[in-house]
Amino acid sequence: MRLYLVRHGKAEFGPEDADRRLSSRGRADVEALAKHLRAQEISVARMIHSTLSRARETAEILAAEIAPGAKLEELEGIEPWGNVKAFGKLVDGWKHDAMVCGHEPFMGEAASYLMTGDPHANLVEVKTGTVMQFARNPYGGGWQLRWMLKPRLVRGPKVGED
Description:
alpha/beta; Rossmann fold; six-stranded mixed β-sheet
């Protein structure tokens, strides 16, 4: 079973955090990532997102390319303030490849927790639009980070966009 953790694409600025949508740059970054992942023959059975708009939009874009026909699932508790330990217990029971679209600091803390059992180990910095692939550790408990991909590696540097 592979687990993909994704931080939503760059969002618009706004006063109401829950309603902030992807910016044009964020949408373009996620679209480029989605096409790249499909070209690498990556697919998932489950596409999960937080309760916030920008994570749902990110999941919709990714699902169109790598999870066609999968029903998007909203999951409370993976917002920036989410419970990382509860999430870790939840994913331990999953049997099918899944992609989870959420936020910082949750995604960085979840990555650290999955690998070490310590959500505050600060092992990775998760920029907007970043995708991380994890697999269960074949040599014992926990998870291994297999790879991490940032939009800039796929799309190139920013050029006159928000």
